[in-house]
Task: structure prediction
Amino acid sequence: MGCECSLDKLKNEVDRVIGHHELSQKINNNDILLKSIIQIQSVYRSYIFRKRTFSSQAQNNGDDNNNNNDNNNQEFIFYNSNAKFKTSIPKLITEYEFDILKLKYPPLKDNIKTLFLPNIEYTNDNSEYLGEWDPSSGKRHGRGIQKFSNGAIYEGYFQDDQASLKGKLTHPNNDTYEGGWKNGKADGYGVYSHNDGAKYEGFWKNDKQDGRGVEIWPDNTRYEGGFTEGKKNGNGVFYWGDGSFYQGEFLENFIEGKGVYTWRDKRVYDGTWKKNEMDGEGVFKWPDGRRYEGNYKKDKKEGFGIYYWPNGVIYKGEWKNGKQNGIGEIYNNENKIWKKALWEKGKLIKWIDNDNNNDINIDEQKNLGIKE
Result:
């Protein structure tokens, strides 16, 4: 009874000093007042530890500053020097939750003796922390749980007042990240799970995917490969849900460089790419035996190229916008000779420099048509 009264009296005194209007106006410019507040808070902390009464004094006074913003791009700032004890401790975080946390995360072996503190309020964002502290520095250190006012929750290790080593962050929309942390940001190996079933498993650096990793989407689309600063980069394999897949180089989330793309119907392109389009030299093969070897520009045959038909006929020459255009030669497999001709938009216009300069054989022209 006497203990409860003394605690209430001390709480009231802390509220009076911290909440005094004139003092709050001067606090930033007066070192003496600032030191006084620090001393009062220190006394209050020591009192709670000695008596172990913080849980019995807990009261749920609600939170009138709920933030319903479901913005998953919010930056969760773990370091905050504006921390103070709540004079009326809410039950946002319970000791039971912390006991479960201790089973999952063993104590740090860094020779720093830590103390367990009750819920701490962070005045600029209304977040709360329960867990271990380093009494020599007054910073969070060891195992702890932090709940943000918008509903996000972090549980895991802290070092130097920031999320570190290993932990789990649950976003307001139930997306989760669990894995390595460094200086309050995802770092090392970790798994990010979206609430729609998409998932990334792999390495992180400075809160971004960086290194080898695997992305999986609900429709069975899948990427396995390299990342740099959150973007697909380097060598990788991308599988689409319809059975198509690409293996090769990526640059800033684009298919770019050398690579092989295989369509569901077994068409295959092996060559160079630029921003997800065939661009440069490559070889395109069809399942019926046709083959093209040559240049591409923005997914179309462009420049010089050779086209092979299954019946032995060959065209070699100029292309434009995916069709024969300009001077080209035709190889007839039956008489084993090459014939030069002028083409325009995929149509044979006339023969050039041939002894047999006959009119165009319409059936022959049809057989030389290009179909993708």
